[in-house]
Amino acid sequence: MPSHSNYSILIGLFFLAFVQEDSAVVSSALLGYNGIFPYWLTFAACFLGMWVSDIGIYLLMKLGGRHVWNRLGRSDYCHCIKPTELPVGLIDTADIP
């Protein structure tokens, strides 16, 4: 079992899921595969990090919405892409029955 100082790796894995979920999953798999931590610990750190970050973003937008988004300096909150703005060949609606 890891010592207390090594649990900082799991805390880092938790916060890595906030920034880049893919690298958190790969890192947790490698930590479990190499026997540095049990699989359930790396899975728990990764899962909880993803869950907390997604719930945090959901609550931020649910409670604040457009006001929070504008305060963050983003003005394209409700920008809808029109079919004329799509790159040519990305979607060919003539082939859809």
Structural description of this entry:
The structure is a single chain. With 97 residues, the protein is mainly alpha-helical. It has one domain (4-87). The chain contains four helices and no strands. The longest helix has 25 residues, at 39-63. The chain is elongated and about 45 Å long.
If you average the pLDDT, what whole number results?
77
SSE sequence, one letter per element: HHHH
Beta-strand content bin? under 5%
Q: How many structural domains does the protein architecture include?
A: 1
Largest sheet features:
none
Form type: elongated
Structural class: mainly alpha
Q: What are the segments in which pLDDT stays under 50 over at least 5 consecutive residues?
A: none
Number of alpha- plus pi-helical segments: 4
Number of strands: 0
Specify the helix fraction band: 55-70%
Quaternary: single chain
End-to-end span in angstroms? 59 Å
Radius of gyration: 20 Å
